[in-house]
Amino acid sequence: MNLSLVRTYETCRGARIYQIPLQLFPILAGYVYLVFVQNAGQEYRVLIDTGSGYGDSNTQLEEGLRSVSELAGSSVGLQDLTHVLITHGHIDHFGGLAYVRPRTGAQVGVHELDLRNLTNYDERLTMVARRLEQFIIEAGFPQSQKSELIQMYLLTKRLYHSVQVDFTYEACGMRVGPFEMLHVPGHCAGHVVIRLHDVLFSGDHILNETSPHQSPEHLTLSTGLDHYLKSLDLLESWTSGVHLTLGGHKEPITQLPARLAEIRHLHNSRLAQVQHILNEPHTVNEVSQSLFGEVHGYNVLLALEEAGAHVEYLYQRGLLGIANLEEIASSEGSIPIRYHQLAEKTPPAGNLTEGIPGGP
After folding, report:
1. Which of 39, 171, 209, 226 is deepest in the core (most CB within 10 A)?
2. Could you give the CA distance from residue 226 to residue 223 in angstroms, rounded to a whole number?
């Protein structure tokens, strides 16, 4: 690995941060972070996230650690870590743990609501796949393409196997030495952001240039747009004094309040678009096509979930109704649901903007 690819940062109190780039999946790149910090006479060597474990991701992680060793002037490998902190339970952030865990004595931590994603992986994958199939049917996605979409979802996720962790964040008071955690559900049920001095590690909760992907809470509890927007408010009040935000993807953020405003703006715009589309009854799949146009591959699922999250948000607030309720009531199984705007309801207040999240 070219040493220039590993970027270095320093907190206001002298903690050293090394940003290691990884190719997580063929169309998705990202970062893990190695942090050196002294606290109360103890040295912490902390890896934040582990990459996907897919393709060359594990090899690139090892190469990154060798590059850090040269930059730092001292050897550091997986065996030298004190902690591995997982920001959230999506496989591009924890999939490499199956490789890392047997090669380190580090303490591994994750939030309680994502614990099962790591430790009971097969169960989690099976249950989500069942809910996803129901969602795809109710979204009105073509039956002839349903199996292909589900298999696409499962393909890379079958590479991981369950790995035990050592602690959960709430159980340790949302703090590990100098590292502070804040639970920010929405993009993922157990997502946390991690603050060290004046630097924030945001995982996928806040990203530069792209709005983190949203999916309906119908698929996984403590996800969904409602949780995500409330987490943005919570984060803003918690991050006073943060001067640098390092995400799991994209470039660093130096103006966090402005980025939070942009993301809120985007979602309010999308909610207004969905309400306009649903002046006439439509399925979630039709809403997705209107919002994002023609997409391909895994982006089809991302767009469908994103549309579903916004439809769900409006429906939860009584702004939408179901146009084919009698048909649903008389059906023995799941069928496509057609939503429409309720004329007597007023739209949510908010700003408007553009964009597409983390995928299409």
Report:
1. 226
2. 8
Helix (H) or strand (E) holding 129: helix 121-138
φ, ψ of residue 160 to 5 degrees: the values are: -90, 155
Instruction: Report the pLDDT value the prediction gives residue 156, as an integer from 0 to 100.
Output: 74
Taking CA atoms, 206 is separated from 184, 243, 270, in Å, by 10, 14, 18
Distances (CA, A) of 40 to 37, 44, 178, 309, 336: 10, 10, 9, 44, 58
The amino acid occupying position 37 is: V
Apex 210 CA angle, 209 and 214, nearest 5: 160
> Which helix (H) or strand (E) covers residue 61, if one does?
helix 57-72
- Domains detected in the chain: 3-119+159-266 (3.60.15.10)
Could you read off the pLDDT of 104-161 as tens digits, one per residue?
Answer: 999 999 999 999 999 999 999 999 999 999 999 999 999 999 999 999 888 878 778 9
Q: Coil, strand, or helix at residue 246?
A: strand
Tokens 């380190």, located at residue: 104
The pLDDT of residue 241 is 94
Can you give the pLDDT at residue 350? 42
Token pair recorded at residue 272:
């207004």
| Whole-number pLDDT of residue 3 | 52
Over residues 268-279, the pLDDT tens digits come to: 999 999 999 999
- Arithmetic mean of pLDDT over the chain: 93
Surface-to-core class of residue 77, CB atoms within 10 Å of its CB (0-12 exposed, 13-18 middle, 19+ buried): middle
Residues 6 or more apart in contact with residue 254 via CB below 8 angstroms: 243, 244, 245
Q: CB of 248 within 8 A of CB of 203?
A: yes
For residues 28, 158, 193, 173, the Cα torsion angle rounded to the nearest 10 degrees is -170
CA distances to 88, 109, 192, 240, 286 from 204, in Å: 8, 17, 9, 19, 27
* Structure confidence at residue 211 as a pLDDT band (50, 70, 90): very high
Phi-psi region of 49 (alpha: psi -120 to 50; beta: other; left: phi over 0): left
Kindly state the percentage of the chain with pLDDT values over 70. Answer: 94
Please answer whether residues 114 and 188 qualify as being in contact, where contact means their C-beta atoms are separated by less than 8 angstroms. Answer: yes
